[in-house]
Design a protein that fits this description.
Elements (H helix, E strand, L loop, with lengths): L1 H4 L8 H13 L6 H8 L4 H35 L1
Helix pairs in contact: 2-4, 3-4
């Protein structure tokens, strides 16, 4: 129902919604992992840390992309 209202064509499952909430809504916005764990009803924080690893991987990818862009900018300055 939500996907129809937002005109999202991708099939949204409960699991995808929980994962998105954990990663995009909470952890990416600085909500402590202990709080996210409680919100998701996890009895072990290790379960929530699985979601945090997704964030760490994204941060790593973002930093690598930033390095590439900075190198490109520096190369343009040297060429001038």
């Amino acid at each position: 129902e939500v996907t129809k209202k937002l005109e999202i064509e991708k099939h949204l499952t409960f699991h995808i919604a929980r994962h998105t909430f954990a990663t995009t809504v909470t952890l990416s916005n600085g909500v402590p992992i202990e709080t996210v764990s409680k919100l998701l009803g996890h009895t072990k924080i290790a379960t929530t840390q699985i979601y945090a690893k997704v964030i760490e991987r994204k941060v790593s990818d973002d930093i690598n992309n930033l390095k590439i862009k900075l190198l490109q900018v520096n190369n343009k300055k040297i060429s001038i």
